[in-house]
Amino acid sequence: MTSRPKLFTRDATGLVRNASLFDAFLFGLSCSIPFAANFYLYPFYIYILPGADWTIASLIALALAVPIYIVYAGLGSMMPRAGGDYVFQSRAVHPIWALISSIGWTVFLVIPFFSVLLLLSSVSLGFVPLFTVGGAVTGNSALASASTWLSSSVGTFTFTALAIIITALVSIAGIRWMARAFRYAFLPITLITGITLIYLFFSTSTTSFQNDFNHYMAILNGTSNSYNTVLSATAKAGFTTPAFSWANTLLLATVITVTFLMWAAWSSPVLGEIRGGGNLKNLLVTFGTAGAFQTFFLLIPELYGFQHSVGTNFMNAVSYAAYTPGVVSLPFAPSVAIFSLMMTTSPLIMVLASVGYIMVGWAQLQTAFFNGSRYFLAGSIDGLLPAWLTAPQKRFGSAFYCIMAMFVLLMSYAFVLDFYPSLSTYIAIAVWSSPGIFFGTSLAAILMPWRKRQIYSSSPIAKYRGLLPICGIIGFVTTGFVLIGYLVIPQLLVGLSSLGAAVVIGVGVIGTVWYIVFQRYKLRKGQDISLAYREIPPE
To answer: What pLDDT, in 10s, does the model give residues 29-56?
Structure first.
């Protein structure tokens, strides 16, 4: 009688379900990037998508994201294991695609680029506006000096490196400590900043903001009547406030969907550590609540309130001036963050309005750090990556070596981005690659009922006949449209250079070669790793 061949490098991951569905909600919320208006939407997308209505776009975006939440709830309840997307894609599509999408593009391109860029944004949207406007209010030159130092390469790298070290320590301590950090730091600070911004925006009239802006510009730039100067200078340059555009609103909706709201489901890589991670309805509520919270508490009130306070004409004029050299000179980079601080003279309110941006940079890094290590872990359990990656740190139940791999990766990227900031190339690679994870998982949802019929038929979502593949098709079309749009639609072009395209394609080639070579290497040692992909991985 022959024994059954060993399918996985370990019989168990060594991880413990020490987090709840509420924690999964917080992890997903952090990945959807709270206060998203500051992260890329303003002034950039206001400039390239003139006439887009933020409120309508946000509502459409949430509707487009719902099928993705169903996909992740369906696949997650089917296989609530560490690795999420990697597990889904490797079973339903192919291990090569899972290696390229989940580990190649996401771990090596999207996670490090966006994590470091969001930390840099925490500096530029949190610390720098606070020190700039706070220094103007208090007359404290030390704050202005701190702002200048933080804007330097040494300052940003110091902050980024410190954040990565803290993130690594929390990750080594295990998901229980990560959950505590999110409950007792991320959540209250997000609520405090969200409420403070809503208060500032809806308590400040356009006339009042005009006076506030003129006051701070007089201090920072020595100019008077600056609000009207911006309007007249942009008008002289040929700018007119754009009329409403359905086309640009729909394009903005797709951007909000794939850049922010879809990521509310990206707690899936840690489902192997979530209690109740196998419950379909609870997962759908978890992902959907994170997306709805982002939409109705953070996105719409912040964007609508900002437009209400600064004025539609001025809001559009500043975005035009920001990307049209020589029109008007501002002593700062325009953002929702710095304009919100100009609506008050209270240092306390300034701090409350700023700490959320700083916290979001760390929280997104923490979740991405953890998720990336779980992709490594899942690949190692399947035998596709070196076995030593799976050895858990027994005291805390964490994937220690996977975490160290993420630490080295992120610290390397932080050094490169801070001291060799060719941001256009980096951003183009990360932005184009980021929808790939949802594209692949949507494809997995389409194929799962046919490729893994037995696993699918015993899953909770199987009783809703056709729902998983239908939602997969919607997600596949949405993400596919954006991936193509980033290359061919003028308003969405990410500027992927030949070097950037070579990097993206090169990662795909390396992933393919790695799988073929590693599979043959394992076969020579008597292990067929392809057999592992017929089964659900161990817990």
So the answer is: 999 988 766 666 788 888 999 999 999 9
Number of Cβ atoms within 10 Å of the Cβ of 96: 20
The CA radius of gyration of the chain, in Å to the nearest whole number, is 24
Dihedral of alpha carbons 426, 432, 401, 99, sign: negative
Q: What is the pLDDT of residues 493-523, one digit of tens each?
A: 888 888 889 999 999 999 999 999 988 988 8
- Give percent of the chain above pLDDT 70: 96
Predicted local confidence at residue 152, as pLDDT: 86
Q: Respond yes or no on whether the N-terminal peptide bond of residue 80 is cis (omega within 30° of 0).
A: no
What kind and span of H or E run contains 532?
Answer: none
Describe the crossing of helices 153-173 and 400-419 by its angle, rounded to 10 degrees: 170
pLDDT higher than threshold 90 for residue 257: yes
Residue 538 to residue 381: CA distance in whole angstroms: 8
Report the range out of 26-40, 225-239, 367-381, 405-419 with the highest average pLDDT.
225-239
The type of residue at 516 is I
- Tell me the one-letter amino acid at 239: F
How many whole angstroms separate alpha carbon 38 and alpha carbon 259?
13
Which of 267, 273, 235 has the alpha carbon at shortest distance from 398?
A: 273
The residues, ordered by sequence, that sit 6+ positions from 277 with a Cβ below 8 Å of its Cβ are: 17, 21, 24, 76, 77, 80, 271, 283
Rounded to an integer, what distance in angstroms lies between the CA atom of residue 26 and that of residue 286?
Answer: 9
Q: What is residue 245's predicted lDDT score, i.e. its pLDDT? A: 96
Residue whose structure tokens are 């061949």: 5
DSSP string, 313-333: HHHHHHHHHHTSTTS---SS-
- What amino acid is encoded at 172 in this protein? I
Rounded to two decimals, the pTM is 0.93
Burial class (CB in 10 A: 0-12, 13-18, 19+), 484: exposed
Q: How many CB atoms lie within 10 A of CB 387?
A: 12
CA-wise closest residue to 32 among 360, 272, 300, 304: 360
| 3-state secondary structure string across 3-14 | CCCCCCCCCCCC
Is 34 strand, coil or helix?
Answer: coil
CA distance 448 to 476: 14
Distance of CA 234 to the CA centre of its chain: 33
Nearest by Cα to 373 from 14, 78, 75 = 14
- What would the pLDDT profile of 259-281 be if each residue is shown by its tens digit? 899 999 999 999 999 999 899 99
Of the two residues 326 and 291, the one the predictor is more confident about is: 291
Handedness of CA 321, 322, 326, 330 (dihedral sign): positive
Query: Quick one: pLDDT at residue 523?
Result: 87
Please, are residues 136 and 219 in contact by the beta-carbon 8 Å criterion? yes
Token output for 6: 């060993």
Asked if the model's pLDDT at residue 361 lies above 50, the reply is yes
